[in-house]
């Protein structure tokens, strides 16, 4: 396992600084109305979708001329920042690192959910898509830095996860994410994986 510790230490010290995506909630929208999501940072551009007047945990990847780019089901869209107010990201259980991330990767296919309750679920091709659950045993943020964040977990699947602010593509869609992840996992049957992928805040309903 010494080689893996060396890999993670290398990742921790070589991430380049990049602005973290911010979290927001919708404000100044009537209860009977919605906040439109547009194709570009322009009030006249096509409407791609909408957010509820009480929507929260909206992840803004970047800002441009008073507009914020967000993730949507099939790609990215833009919303007027005048209708958003910042909010804090939940922590991961009792640890000093943020939670509430959804991560995924392709080639190989995998996914993980890190909750604010300190629990993690993981699935991939080796588990045939079945979710394996675990509890965090440690989580922390790099010293004197906003990220990367390190997580250790044990349970039906055990291992380590690093999440850092970075532009990321899943290679399968038009989505562009604001977080990159590196995950090492092992299961009780001896299966081991070391995978890379992208993370986001789960999309609001």
Describe this structure in words.
The chain is mainly beta. 6% of the residues lie in helices and 48% in strands. The chain is built from one helix and 15 strands. The strands form three sheets. It has an eight-stranded antiparallel barrel. The chain has a five-stranded antiparallel β-sheet with strand order 6-5-4-1-7, with no helix packed on it. Strands 2-3 form a two-stranded antiparallel ribbon. The longest helix is centred in the first third of the chain and has 13 residues, at 2-14. The radius of gyration is 18 Å and the shape is globular. The termini are far apart.
Summary?
This protein has 205 residues and is mainly β.
Gross morphology: globular
Considering DSSP H and I runs of 4 or more, what fraction of the residues is helical? under 10%
Judged by helices, strands and strand pairing, the structural class is mainly beta
Helix-strand pattern, N to C? HEEEEEEEEEEEEEEE
Major sheet characteristics: 8 strands, antiparallel, barrel
What's the overall average pLDDT, rounded? Answer: 89
Q: Give Rg in angstroms.
A: 18 Å
State the end-to-end distance: 40 Å
Number of strands: 15
Helical element count? 1
Order of neighbouring strands in the sheet with most strands: 8-9-10-11-12-13-14-15
* Poorly predicted segments: 1-7
**What proportion of the residues form beta strands (DSSP E)?**
over 45%
Question: How do the strands and helices of this protein lay out in sequence?
Answer:
Blueprint lengths: L1 H13 L7 E5 L8 E4 L8 E5 L6 E7 L2 E5 L4 E5 L3 E3 L14 E5 L4 E5 L4 E6 L7 E10 L7 E7 L2 E12 L6 E11 L5 E9 L5
Antiparallel strand pairs: 1-4, 1-7, 2-3, 4-5, 5-6, 8-9, 8-15, 9-10, 10-11, 11-12, 12-13, 13-14, 14-15
